Amino acid sequence: MIRRGDPVVEVFLEETAERLDSIEAGLLKLEQCDGACDAEAVNAIFRDAHSVKAGSNLLKLNNIEKLSHKLENVLEMIRKGRIGPTETVITACLEAVDKLRDLRERIEHSDAVSIRLHTAMLEAALREARKGD
Q1: For residue range 21-66, what is the model confidence (pLDDT) as tens digits?
Q2: Is residue 132 pLDDT above 80, yes or no?
Q3: Virtual torsion, Cα 88, 92, 22, 79, nearest 10 deg
Q4: 67 lies in some domain
Q5: Whole-number average pLDDT of the chain
Q6: Taking the CB of the first residue and of the last residue of the chain, which one, N or C, has fewer CB atoms within 10 A?
Q7: Ramachandran region, residue 89 (left: φ > 0; alpha: ψ -120 to 50; beta: rest)
Q8: Is 54 among the domain residues?
Q9: In the chain, how many domains are there?
Q10: d(Cα 45, Cα 43) in Å, to the nearest integer?
Q11: How confident is the model at residue 72 (pLDDT cuts 50, 70, 90)?
């Protein structure tokens, strides 16, 4: 069971907060550069999402892992140039980041919170972005 105060949980909470802030800032920058961002900016966002996923996996935080994995998948598609950072894609990613913050705040009960809407938003953004090809 996850408990605040556990040193490992506290490190996860702190690092996740920092990484989510970094992901959000990176997504906003990506939105502003209209697809002309340097590859390292996209890679940094991807690495932060991957780290959130990996940490949540270690702690068996299923919903945080699932949602961060979906986010990571979208970022991977951007990173590989398979989709562009469209408004729909960025919005879905930012919404996922907000939900991950919510799950982080309610870490003890995060697996009881529905993430269905946010995973569906990411999937819909991917479908829409692929149609634009």
Answers
A1: 999 999 999 988 866 778 888 999 999 999 999 999 999 999 999 9
A2: no
A3: -60
A4: yes
A5: 92
A6: N
A7: alpha
A8: yes
A9: 1
A10: 5
A11: very high
Domain ranges, residue 52:
7-131
Assigned token pair, 69: 């994995």
- The alpha carbon of residue 89 and the mean position of all alpha carbons in its chain are separated, in whole angstroms, by 12
Q: Which SS3 state, helix, strand or coil, does residue 37 take?
A: coil
User: In whole angstroms, what is the distance from residue 56 CA to residue 54 CA?
Assistant: 6
Q: Which runs of consecutive H residues, i.e. helices, occur in the chain?
A: 7-32, 39-58, 62-79, 87-105, 116-131
Encoded tokens for 51:
């780290």
The helix (H) or strand (E) run that includes residue 119 is helix 116-131
pLDDT of residue 28: 93
User: Residue 5: how many CB atoms within 10 A of its CB?
Assistant: 6
Residues 29, 13: Cα–Cα separation, whole Å: 24
Q: What tokens appear for 12 in the block? A: 């996860």
Residue 133 pLDDT > 60, yes or no? no
